[in-house]
Amino acid sequence: MLADRPQRTHALAAGYIIQALAFGATAACMILGLPPLVVYCAAAIAACTIGFTRPTQGALLPELSRTPEELSVANGVSGTVEGAGLFIGPLAAAAILTVGPPGMVFLAGAIAYVVAASLVVSLPATAHPHAIETDTTSDPIAGESAAAERLNIIDGIRVLRENADVRLVVILLALRGMVIGALDVLFILLALEVYGTGQPGAGILNGALGVGTMLGGAAAFSLVGRRRLAPALAFAVCVCGFALVATAALGTGTTAPFLIVIAGIGSAAADVAGRTILQRTTPDAVLGRVLGNLEGFYLFGMSLGSLLVPVIAVATGIVGALALTGALLPVAVVLGWRGLRGIDRRTRVPEREIAAIARNPVFSPLSPPALEAVARKARWWVVDPGHVAIHQGDRGDAYYVIEHGRFQVDVDGRPARILDKPGEGFGEIALLRDVPRTATVTAVDEAVVLVVRRDDFLAAVSGDAPARAVAERVVTERI
Fold it and tell me: Which of 117, 121, 193, 348 has its CA 20 to 30 A from that of 393?
């Protein structure tokens, strides 16, 4: 919900303040020596607040970036800084523990969040597209935005309750999280107690899962543009499960890593296919909330798996626990197969939208997954003859792709060009240069255009070097 507030800079600062309060409360509980249950509850609340800021950061970067190049650099630097934090954080905690009690680590975290909030406050206030004030009777962006502002956090939960397709996919991905959580524990037990490879062996198994995840993620993106994804999800889930069962039956210290790589491929492919199905079956206005619920269920599954697997290992043995963990996924597919078969029949693939933007010179270099992502968020707009689509001097809030119709482009009141080819676009200069609209564009006759929001346009173009080069060439020619 924070990421959907009109002023995202304020929402980000509020998220950091909430985190500071939660971590400070945990530190106080630890330093004062309160009962462990109180400390655990406070720490759990602090852990929940960690998720408050990352979605807002991701939504805010396109608004703060003035060009696609800036957005690309910002995303790259953000990842680098996050990686550095993951390295420096444990070292800092270790240093603090040498001079003070564990509660001081949480106190240091609270101080860091206060510093972060103070830095965010200095950012310029931004209003994301949902907050743009426009005539809702003639602009599809404003009409959709007004409805989006009325939503609340319950809407995402309501979608899970009322949409069986969404609920089924979330359950399968949550079970995948449960398996991942169980493997965190099983890898240690297998290395120490079964294969005799010690702690390095556990690291090798974890590394094998990571390699499989990377391979599966790369391979799974070829599925994104396809109409039928439910069978792909079912197949990927079964590959992961059967690979784990095979590891239990045939695995040794030498062969197990290779089988775990296969399990990782299936796991990553299932994640990509499942999330794509959710994007196709969930209304865009509540998609963020549904994905937030997915993250919650996934993390709950990881916790549950790590808690249950030691109990199962005591009852069935370590190898038996691995076999049962792997069998959980194919069994879930069998139980949910009827629902999975119907998902593709009820899912709308934005074929018309993809066909329109695929003809656009700026978007045509994008990969099929990127094209589909843009197409899903775009909205159709029927423009009446004589209606002004964009006014010179206005703020640029969207990019427009022509499906059919003619538009007159006027610069400083003088005719400049006619746009009448399917796939032609207009409005890119204001978005790429972060300047007011440089021309007025008026419909000559009835026209149909596809409207792509500013942040969606910048995110797509900045993430693809060929698309960025074409966009810059178009801007240079028109200027």
Answer: 121
CA pair distance 378, 427, nearest whole angstrom: 14
Q: How far apart are CA 263 and CA 209, in angstroms?
A: 7
DSSP for 212-256, please give it: HHHHHHHHHGGGTT-S--HHHHHHHHHHHHHHHHHHHHH--TTTH
Query: What gap in Å lies between CA 94 and CA 467, rounded to an integer?
Result: 46
**Are 257 and 204 contacting, i.e. CB atoms less than 8 angstroms apart?**
yes
For 68-87, how does the pLDDT look when each residue is reduced to its tens digit (9 = 90+)? 455 555 655 665 576 567 56
Q: Report which of 96, 273, 312, 60 is spatially closest to residue 185, judged by C-alpha positions.
A: 312
- Cα(83)–Cα(429) distance, rounded to whole angstroms? 34
Contacts of 135 (CB under 8 A, 6+ apart): 142
What is the set of domains in the chain, with CATH numbers? 2-127 (no CATH), 154-346 (1.20.1250.20), 351-478 (2.60.120.10)
Contact 272, 223 (CB under 8 A): yes
pLDDT at 146: 44
Does the predicted model carry a pTM greater than 0.85?
no
Residue 90, judged by CB atoms within 10 A of its CB (0-12, 13-18, 19+), counts as: exposed
Look at residues 186, 14, 34, 193 and name the one whose alpha carbon lies nearest to residue 114: 14
- Residue 145 C-beta-side C-alpha neighbours within 13 Å: 21
CA dist., res. 427 & res. 184, Å (int) = 50
Q: Which of 12, 3, 6 is nearest to 55 (CA)?
A: 3
- Interval 3-34: pLDDT, tens: 555 567 888 888 899 999 999 999 999 999 99
DSSP 349: P
pLDDT for 363-406, tens place per residue? 888 766 677 778 878 889 999 999 999 999 998 889 999 999 99
Q: Read off φ and ψ for residue 399, nearest 5 degrees.
A: -120, 145
Cβ count near 203 (within 10 Å) = 14
CA-based nearest residue to 108, from 86, 93, 120, 127: 93
Q: How far apart are CA 72 and CA 461, in angstroms?
A: 9
